[in-house]
Amino acid sequence: MLNQTKMKFNRYTLFGLTIFVLFFLSFTFNIFRISSSEYNRFDRGSEGYTLGRIIMTEVDGFMSHGGLPANYVYYRYLPDENGNAVTTELWEAAEGKQENLKNFPHSMVQAQMYDDYINNRKVVDGWQDIYMTQPNMMGNVYGLLHILLPIDNTYKLNLFRIVNLLLTALAFFLIVFWVCRNYGYKIGAGVCLLLLFSPWLMRFSHNLWWALWSFYIPFITMLFVLDKKKKYPDKVSDTKVYIYLIIAVFVKFLITGAEFITSTAVMAVCPIIYHAIEHKNDLKQGLSFFLKSSLAVILGFVFGFCFLFIQIKLYIGTWSAGLEHFVFSFTKRSVTGGSMEGNGVLDVLWIYLKEGSIFSWHFFPYITFGFGIFILITLGASFFLKKMSKTESVSVRRRNLALIVTTLISLLGPLSWYVMFVQHAYTHQLFDYIVWYMPFCIYAFIVLSTLFVGVLEKVKKQREKQIA
Known about the structure:
By secondary structure, the protein is mainly alpha-helical. Among the domains are: 45-158, no CATH class; 212-313, no CATH class. Helix content is 68%, strand content 4%. It contains 20 helices and three strands. The protein has helices spanning 2-29, 44-60, 89-93, 98-102, 106-118, 137-148, 153-183, 185-196, 199-205, 217-231, 238-256, 261-278, 283-316, 320-334, 345-354, 371-388, 394-410, 412-420, 422-427, 440-467; strands at 70-77, 86-87, 123-130. Strands 2-1-3 form a three-stranded antiparallel sheet. Strand 1 (70-77) and strand 2 (86-87) form a beta hairpin. The longest helix has 34 residues, at 283-316. The radius of gyration is 24 Å and the shape is globular.
């Protein structure tokens, strides 16, 4: 009996380790060729702000300029072998004027930053273009490591990427692990496969600025906290759940700020909805728990904004600057018009439903369809799963009902972002497709895998009956 338990434990450990390694290898080396050869250079423009934060940590100190991220341009390097300070090509092109630098494309500035950093050039002075919309605390962590590690900058940058890739792999491993615990290893393997072959996850996984794993901190926290509450209801009170939720949302904000804020908020409460339906909570009790949890999410973001306002205060010197920037940023991203070329909310929604190619693999390009078609596929799968569940046990029916309802509600994650922050969605079509995975696609993958495994098991039972 002991040997059987040990073998079972070893088998599960090996399965889990395999999933984690597959995620890490896929995100790091594109081993399944999910994306093009440029997969590791996705959105270097945004990542430049993190690199600028690392450079500023060396030049001006840890948490300098409030710890805010920035593009950083060297004016002059340390003296050459003849004792002369060397002026950078970019500063020469700007004729020694900051206002001219502001007119240069970000790509030029960031190309200079990467070249300077990788070649270990030391700076005399420079100019920082501060970005005040997120704390970017991982940039400060990387900056501190940059100071402490006695290795070449190329190795440091690769190390920072490995840390980011490991955390991203860990995040999706934990999601698959939760699926395995609640639905079994066959369904977990199916979800793992669909996540591995999702090109948008691949594109974001390398980027230090986006830190994809950080968006899933509240979601993953709630998955496991509520699982523990289900198993040990006396040990995990509602108050503890709220505290965990506030902390998780706050940590997410420290890393990526208000990026995809509405999608993150929906992700955080989806496990709560699932939990309430699966356990058939009293309507009044369930609604109260949901509302208090939503308040906890809001509080987490409020604490995050307070931290950001402190950073802006340290940089600019006034408390009003934080509020003014918040109003400016919200208006810039949410109001239609401006750079939208006459397009409205419905036009933007249509773009994100029609385009995007959820499964546009580099090695298999002719299987290409947008997220709108995938939504229809998921709705159809949900219908058949509900129908198939009628012959199952009460617990399985409740579980599948919770899954289907939560999947439908999870659509609010991406849709809320496209509607509330429509101008951002229109302007940044390069990367706003990722919100479909916050968390709609994850739940949709569970629905599809559950239906697929369920059909296979029914076919197997029918064949066994025929043989008997």
